[in-house]
Amino acid sequence: MQRFVSYFTLLAVALVALFPVVNLVLGSPVKALDGPPLVALNFLAWSVVLTFLIWRLEVKKSTSRLAERIGIHTKGLSLERMLSVILNEVNRKNKAISLNLLERRVTNEQELSRTLERIVNLSRQLLNADSAELALFDRESGMYHSSFVVGRPFRSSSQAMLSGAIEGTEINTSPDVLVQPIAFAGAVLGSLRVALKGGRIPTVGDRQVMNLLALQSGLAIVNSRYTEQLLKMKSASDETIKAKTGFLANLSHELRGPLGIIINAVELVLDGLCGPVSDEQSETLGMIRSNGEHLLELVNDVLDYAKIESGKVVPNKTEILINELLKDISGVVRKQAESKSHQLVVLPSDDVFAIECDKRHLRQMLINLLTNAIKYTPNGGRIELWAERIPGNKISLSVKDTGVGIDPADRDRVFNAFERVDNAYSLTQVGTGLGMPLTKKLAEVNGGSISFESVPQQGSRFWIVFPAIQVTSSLIHEKEEPPPPVKGNNDVILLVQKADTERQMITRFIEHLGFRVEPAASKLEALEVLRKEEVHIVVIDNNIVDSPDDDVVGQLRKEAKESSVPVVLISSRAFIFDIEKYLKAGIDRCLIKPIHLKELAQTCRELIDGSYSGSVIDQAELELARDTHTDGIKVQASKLLGVDDIFH
Fold it and tell me: What is the pTM of this model?
């Protein structure tokens, strides 16, 4: 209907424009129409016609330039024909890339064969070819095999035709034959060739379509091989799982080190230890700190998930009073909620609840649930947190939001690692996709369970369930008192740290508290300091080792005026084999990066005063080290940590 109206309007304008000419040729039979109204109408009509012609010319020029950019020759073609050719070319390329072989799983050879055969048929169709062939390349024999051929047979064999594709050299073919190597990451996987009909010379568009089809073939082959390897990984031995877990842990620790330095450096500046800070600078530094802490949380999620996946996490269960914990947890995320104008409400209860769980794990689970609720609730929402007793003598901890909700079709994806619910709002949120699967696994290793209910666009409620325990009077009155502020009494700390920036940062913070720091960038410098004066404690980075055989701690203690001087190790890794020699040397405390400067200062104060009563290294940091060493090393490490067996 719209096209009819357009053509009718154009015809009417043309008739009005031509009417005076016709009237003049016929000897002005219509005298009444020779007046000013007709002249004005005629002028308007010719203006419309000229505008249309100029517009058409500009459209043709623009279309011609576009066609040239995509490799279509349009010389001598009308605008309509030009548009038809471009649309046909776009349609061809769309069909070539619409196979979507990247997301599809090609799980076996039969499925791969069907996929490649489909690509060969599509090659013949899109290129209007007499024949099409796909040949796979065997690198061991240097030969092509397992060909898929449709149409008329080729005049020459694939082996003769495709020689040279391995090295990427020019292949001598007939002008009407296109040959495209199938490659991935520099490795030739096969070749695709087509013979065009009637000796037609291939266009630039033909070559681009061939390139797309060869790329799709490569994706199918790589997809098949990747899927095969993925299935093997799922049934891999324990050693393979440990290697993967160890890699994730090492990677996470390497990232946590520099991230900790960034965050601590920002803290120093914000505390005014590097001079006055303006409001604008403080705001910018706050952004850096916030994003650094967020990145650190993401890295920690990967590390925690690796620990859980290894199956070696043993929770350190304690009796926990839920009522107080909920208030504490809500305070942790309250600023995050307020930044989105959310109401964060802890619903009160007259009952007193207690469970047995690893307190660190429980905090992490609740923070994950609250963070997700805040994240997936648009501004101005309401988040509720509460505990209640449910049948079976169990305690349910619930987090409810008024967010975007979860579609029933996505329910099974919520607890899958590295997956995100697929809706417009959720895709704008940042994260690793590990929060929910990590929460689920932490709940399970602590003897609990997690579930949820959700209505799209109305909100969700997640809850964790644990067995209830009896609430004792000692548990009700038990409160963790915060440690007093750390103060130095001009105590001398020998800081052995190779990295200048990290050494300077720690020195500045420690001296601000009243300690005196003697910095050393190497073992030799540290020994020189010990010869000159008495130090009260040594803080050493594990990267200071000059030689793998060096007994650095032993040499420092031997040179010190007091052989019992406490030694604190700062390590970028928590594996026993990485810090084994330090443990054997009898270090007093091992802190894993990223360290908190206040924790380091507190540790130094307690070790100098002789009041430190904790373990050498936190058990949580050793969870990934289990079952990776000989029994002798396990026993040695257990003795040094002062526990019966850290691996059971």
Answer: 0.48
